[in-house]
Write a structure and sequence with these properties.
This protein is mostly beta strands. It is 0% helix and 48% strand. It is built from no helices and ten strands. The strands form two sheets. The protein has a six-stranded mixed sheet, with no helix packed on it. Strands 1-3-8-7 form a four-stranded antiparallel sheet, with no helix packed on it. Strand 4 and strand 5 form a beta hairpin.
Length: 114
């Protein structure tokens, strides 16, 4: 059974940083293009970053140059470094494949507020 577990969220002031982690069990990261999504309060879930098996990355304009996606295939871990955080980055953050292949995990809450 495939399971996604996100962690690392929290409350941070504007301009601050966080590192999110995603642990995958039951499958191998290396076979898939992996992605981070987020769902801001009252809005739909949106794709914000993805990384393909070769390591190339792509970002939504809203997070480009502030967020960095990376992965460790050996440990089956996906990461998202969040820098220069803004209040509008407040959301629940999720990981999944680029095609949202698997059942969503619980996500991890990121709140940016002074």
């Amino acid at each position: 059974q495939v399971q996604l577990v996100e962690s690392g969220g929290g409350l941070v002031q504007p301009g601050g940083s966080l590192t999110l982690s995603c642990k995958l069990s039951g499958a191998r990261f290396s076979f898939y293009a992996m992605a981070w999504y987020r769902r801001p309060p009252g809005k739909e879930r949106e794709l914000i970053a993805h990384i393909i098996s070769g390591g190339s990355t792509n970002y939504a304009d809203s997070v480009k140059d502030r967020f960095t996606i990376s992965k460790n295939d050996a440990e089956n871990m996906l990461y998202l470094q969040l820098d220069s955080l803004k209040p509008e980055d407040t959301a629940v953050y999720y990981c999944n494949t680029l095609s949202a292949r698997w059942t969503w995990g619980q996500g991890t809450q990121v709140t940016v507020s002074s």
